[in-house]
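Hi C.,

You asked whether I'd gotten around to modeling the 280-residue construct. I have! Everything is below, sequence then structure, no commentary in between.
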Amino acid sequence: MSTTDTTGADSAPLDDLKARHRRMWALGDYPRVAREIVSPLGGVLVDALDVGAGERVLDVAAGTGSAAVRAAGRGATVTASDLTPELLEAGRAEHPDEDLTWDVADAEALPYGDAAFDVVLSAIGVMFAPHHQQAADELVRTCRPGGRIGVVSWTPEGTIGRLFATMRPYVPAPPPGVSPPPLWGTEDHVRGLFGDRVDRWRVERRVLPVDHFDDGAGFRDYFAAHYGPTIAAYAAHSGDPERTADLDRDLAALGDREGTAGPDGFAMQWEYLLMTGEVV
């Protein structure tokens, strides 16, 4: 199915912050990162929510649609939405036979009616919306009472949370009101965002096994080539060889600390938080 842009002429134009986010996630090759490493998390979330045939499912900040595709495979009627059209186009190209709706949409201003979906979910996606409360409010608004909400997010203490902490000194400070993405990997933060509007929470910390790299330098080089936020961190110091060398060193050191070299190669365990609940 085609990709529809709901952030176009009939809606308010993207502000500078959202436009920068859209450009950042189009850098490099995030579809490759999804395909080679993180796509299993979409299936983890869909399975945890036990998505069923005929259910109306919204995948928010879907990226290339790993969760959306898994839900469609279970017979659900699925909409995959994301702010970055390049990611949706990549997902649609990778899954041309899946019966999905692909919408370019802002997680903080979703173009869907109240209670329009039975299941609203996001796998390592909505955590990157800059205003956490607005995004959480939209997840609740679009899910019917009795429906289910589910999120998978990198934890602050896990490898990707530490990646963002390592990059923080190398990027400009965010505008006021913008929250760090890994906060979505903290149970108390997520419960606070949803308040008493969601209950029957099921909460698990899990790890994604990753054996894609030979060492910490390989981890750094992969992210520097393919992951938008890391590419943006390097771009901020493109004219400063000393600062670039510092970033090189810090990311490689992080990778070495987070991985373990053994007889089967270099292995990492990327921690994430899985939370599912029911809308009151």
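If it helps when you're writing up: The longest strand covers residues 265-279.

Thanks,
B.
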